[in-house]
Amino acid sequence: MVEPAPRRLVEVQAKDPRIVAGLMTGTSMDGLDLVILRVARQRPWRFALLASAQEPMPDDLRAALARQGSLSLAEAAHIDRRLGEWFAEALARLVARFGLVPDLVGSHGQTLFHEHGVITCQLGEPAFLAARLGCPVVSDFRRNDIALGGCGAPLVPIVDCWLFAREEEGVLALNLGGIANLTVVPPAKRPELPLLGFDCGPANMVADELARRFSDGVLACDVNGELARRGRVRADLLAELLAHPALNREPPPSLGREQFGAAFVDALLERAPPRSEQDWCDLLATAAEFSARCIARAVARRVPAAYGCRLCVASGGGVRNPELMRRIRAALAPIAVIESDALGVPAALKEAIAFALLASARIDGIACGVPTVTGARRSALLGKITEC
Length: 388
Description:
The chain is of the alpha/beta class. The chain is built from 15 helices and 13 strands. It has two domains: 9-151 and 352-386, 2-Layer Sandwich (Nucleotidyltransferase, domain 5), CATH 3.30.420.40; 157-343, 2-Layer Sandwich (Nucleotidyltransferase, domain 5), CATH 3.30.420.
């Protein structure tokens, strides 16, 4: 293989527009989302989607990452390399398929550990991307915000503002990944209202783990919400789930597998051991309702009436689950819920698009951290730059 000639940072900064790739793996650990955009250097950043792909995560990587609480330092280092190589191979295939030459890559990485406002760790060594593609890579987006006293998450609200802001009314931007996170975009005519963003609770994470346990690993998720659709919500369990301490802290913490991963599901199954297929369906129905109620409660508690939000724009893998979406629409009524595809942003790719745009802003030295979202002392430059 011929190594590409490296394109240096100064060359990338001079380009307008530039070709930027974005890579995202989420807390669901189901796969890698890739996009390649043409990005204009102007605010709000305008882009055209040139290519995209979604690749399932290799089984051995998913199994290794699922052991995050017991990994040795050496094991974590090997996973870091494997992920970096996988990211580079996947993006190289997409580039070759469409004949594109990226000037820049933004790679979020796979979160191994995140402690609210203390430490964060994303794996997927960016040097492999820089070496394979011959261009700078922006990664490790969260640590600068934490260094300035923020919680390091969520980081996508600024992009939601670029994509979805309206002149006269506020908009809710809901991302349904492993965790449900919400951005409250103020009306453009109300500059005194701050941009808000916070995690609500689990979206797909609990249901995905239940589906894997029910099927002995055959299913990675509750496909189309079919199992949940056949179930009945257990009110007793739902009340206990909604009382989870992480959901009732102020300010709301950033959430992940530490709160709602395998250990959470272990405790749920110990509390309500399923003895039949119907019991499993009831648990999945309860998990879907739990997600919807977490979102609705977050809106009721944390979205001021002054924002005038009558529209919720949903994205992320959860929009492919009709049963989850049905429950979210019921819980948020009378707020209308649409998928971001209706506004020209593919729902399954929004976060990959977001990290491509954040990478482009980082190269231009534009601070995109939002203190009203993360609690940082000031707006941080998001991401570190790797050249090879």
